[in-house]
Amino acid sequence: MSLFEGHRFLIIQSSELSATKAENLKKQIISTGYDEEGGILIKRNSDLIPVSNEKLAKVTLIVSNTVDFVEYQLAEELMIPVVRDAWVVDSIAANLIETLRSYSPDPKYFLSSVSICCAASICKGDKEALFSAVRSFGGIHTDHLSRRTTHLIAVDTDDDMCRMAIAFNQACERDVIRIVRPEWLLDSIISKHRLEEDRYGVGSKERYAEPVTSALFKGRTFFLDDDFNISSRVSSSLKTLIEQHGGKVDSEDRADTYIGKYRVGDMYQLANQEKWPTGNLNWLFWMLLHEEWITPGKIMLHYPYPKEPLEGMDRVVVSVTHYSGDSRLYLQQLVEIMGGTFTKNLRQFTTTHLLVAKPTGEKYKYAQEWNIKCLNHLWLEESYAKWELQDDSDPRYLKFGDQLDVAHAVGHTSLEIGLTSSQSTRMDSQDVSSSLEMPRKKLKPNSKPYDIVAILTGCDREFSASDLRNFSKVGIKVVEQPTNSLNCIIAPGILRTEKFLKSLSKSPKYLLTPMFLIDVLATINSHKVDNFERVKPRIDKYNLSRHINFKKDPKMKELFLDPSLGAQNIVNLIEHSNSKLFETGDFCISATIPGGPDLISSIVKSFGCQVCLIFDKKTKRLPKKVAATRYLLCEAKDEPLQAHFRKLAEGEHYRIVEWNWVVMSIFNTKLVDRFIINES
Q1: 198 phi and psi, to 5 degrees?
Q2: In which band, very low, low, confident or very high, does the pLDDT at 428 lie, cut at 50, 70 and 90?
Q3: What SS3 state is found at 180?
Q4: 95 in the same domain as 140
Q5: pTM score above 0.90
Q6: Are residues 448 and 542 in the same domain?
Q7: CATH number of residue 50's parent domain
Q8: 442 versus 387: which is more confidently predicted?
Q9: Structural domain span for residue 383
Q10: In the listed set 103, 126, 153, which residue is the last one of a domain according to the structure?
Q11: Which residues lie below 8 Å from residue 316, measured CB to CB, with a gap of 6+?
Q12: φ and ψ at 125, to 5 degrees?
């Protein structure tokens, strides 16, 4: 059996992972005995056209040395692990599957190389908070010291675990396991990078945080419930985290946002009565990681947990097969919160359920032989969401692998479908109580709260026909293709997709995150339309510029000439984007250009190009020149094509450029001097 049996790979070729390396990587995987037909797909990160959602949902692992590829955001949403090529090499060398998280190429997971364990001097509440924190920022945690442990968190070294770590370090003659105070981990998160451990030795009281500020929580006042049972050292760090991102932590009479562990208690009930956003520490850390506000119920483990175990779950012992990385961890957490037992290994007379991503492999084979119930993850998720064990003979739970569509990927079950009145849980993200309603503002005849014509791109959330009708009622029209009336692009970030680029040619007024539509919909569902004007989400809160770290995001350096300008780049983009950018050029598009010449031509034409020719080595003549400059758009390595173009364009003013020249020109609203291969 192959080491990678059951996996389907997508390998992203980029400047960090060349075509030669990608092919060699494929050969290495196959050399292990891997023979799944069509199980290894190689794609260039410069390709504009993403792998279809259905095709991506079948991928179990993405190998890439960069996060700059169009599928990355959806891969995160689908919990598909993304690892550097070193993971494949190291796994083959060790003949075992290495920890996926340690190989993440995403710089925001700056704790990806960290594996923590907590000593006896760390109380249970602090331990749970620290585990949530390290997990959120890419690291892992264990209850016991292991070969992978990098850090032991302690406030006192007088216990067996600390003595073992000290003895191990002495035997190795170096600090293999760093023994640090909790503040090391929390200050690293406050600083958004891994701090030096030497300053955080047990016994020291100094702190060296370098706070990174934002307006993420501006205008929000949090109440931190005491049911976490955390120490003052941890709670003060949480308060710092909230305050450095524009929020406040205050008493119940001043708060409008609740963070607690369980769905019980007076403050939890008050938060629901007042319709405050209600979440837990997972929710807080997720927002800090992504620098984005999210409704707490969208991801089930972001909402406070039920305090008592689910009835009947004490008799359930769950194992999983072909779930890996975050999806595996997510399912394990669900099982344990519900009161069941999660086991790594299948046991004939103990394991009651096997969750199956793909119906292959040893575990699946033996589960069938031993009459262990084989189900998909939906059984577990819906049991948690409805807080009632679902019928494990339901045919919906007996579909595996390709039989499940993208909408049913791990983590896509919403908690909101399962909240019952007996739990007194209201998932409304609005913080305005009906008892505090102001006099209604009268709208002008035929006027609506918004005047927006928007296009969506790169968004994982799909809106129903009913949602679109509700948007229309408040003045938001969602279109499929860029039109002259378009004034808004809604996307999770600055993208290189066809829709995003073409839409910039329409001189949009707004660039917004998808949370704008989600919050608008939540507001519509909780308020009458004629009262919507008073409570409508403010557009400026959702500006893309507020959710981009221009200094640290490597994509910004590739798109903007001067990333140090920060949000001003987005202001310039909005103010100066227009449909005449390429009107001074006649374009020849290489027939083999990534993304396809037809797609590239349509983008160039949307910015004013009048003449656009698909060009190859068989082209005998160039069309009559209309604009001032001829352009050849091709790959830098395609030297024969360039030589052929220069011969046909002899005596004329021409430029030979890469696709990145087009992209960078669009985002800087002028013809840039980068990515020019040759010119006359």
Answers
A1: -55, -30
A2: very low
A3: strand
A4: no
A5: no
A6: yes
A7: 3.40.50.10190
A8: 387
A9: 313-404
A10: 103
A11: 335, 338, 340, 341, 352, 353, 389
A12: -65, -45
How far lies 223's CA from each of 26, 186, 243, 635, in Å?
51, 19, 12, 55
Give the residue among 252, 245, 246 at the shortest CA–CA distance from 219: 246
Residues 46 and 124 in one domain: no
Q: Check: CB of residue 655 under 8 Å from CB of residue 676.
A: yes
Q: Which of 71, 103, 135 is the last residue of a domain?
A: 103
The pLDDT assigned to 418 comes to: 40
Between CA 535 and CA 527 the distance in angstroms is 8
Q: Is the distance from CB of 26 to CB of 36 less than 8 angstroms? A: no
Residue 437: what pLDDT? Answer: 30
Local structure of residue 262 (DSSP, 8 states): B
CB atoms within 10 A of CB 141: 20
Among residues 602, 587, 608, the alpha carbon closest in space to that of 499 is found at: 602
* Number of domains the chain contains: 5
Query: What's the rounded Cα separation, in Å, for the pair 336 and 342?
Result: 7
Strand partners, 221: 248
Same domain? 69 vs 134: no
Does 504 share its domain with 527? yes
Task: Provide, rounded to the nearest whole percent, the portion of the chain with pLDDT above 70.
Answer: 94
pLDDT greater than 80 at residue 602: yes
Are 147 and 98 within one domain? no
pLDDT for position 395: 92
Mean pLDDT of the chain: 89
476 part of a folded domain = yes
110 lies in a domain?
no
At 323-379, the pLDDT tens digits run 988 999 999 999 999 999 999 999 999 999 999 999 988 999 999 999 999 999 999
Within a domain: 234: no
246 pLDDT tier (thresholds 50, 70, 90):
very high
Residue 254: burial class (beta carbons within 10 Å; 0-12, 13-18, 19+): exposed
C-beta atoms surrounding 571 within 10 Å: 13
Q: Are 273 and 253 in contact (CB under 8 A)?
A: no
**Exposure pattern of 100-115 as b/e (b: 16+ CB <10 Å)?**
bbbbbbeebbbbbbbb
CA distance 136 to 186: 12
pLDDT (tens digit, 9 = 90+) per residue, 189-208? 999 999 999 999 998 988 99
pLDDT score for 5:
86
pLDDT of residue 467: 85
User: Based on the domain organization, do 467 and 510 belong to the same domain?
Assistant: yes
Whether 438 is in a domain gets the answer: no
Give the tokens for residue 324: 């890996």
362 and 397 together in one domain: yes
Nearest to 607 by CA among 664, 679, 557: 664
> For residue 1, what are its two tokens?
């059996």
* Residue 424 pLDDT level (bands cut at 50, 70, 90): very low
Task: Write out the DSSP string of 35-71.
Answer: --TT-EEEEETT-SSPPPHHHHHT--EEE-S-S-STT
Of 516, 565, 506, which Cα lies nearest the Cα of 544?
A: 516
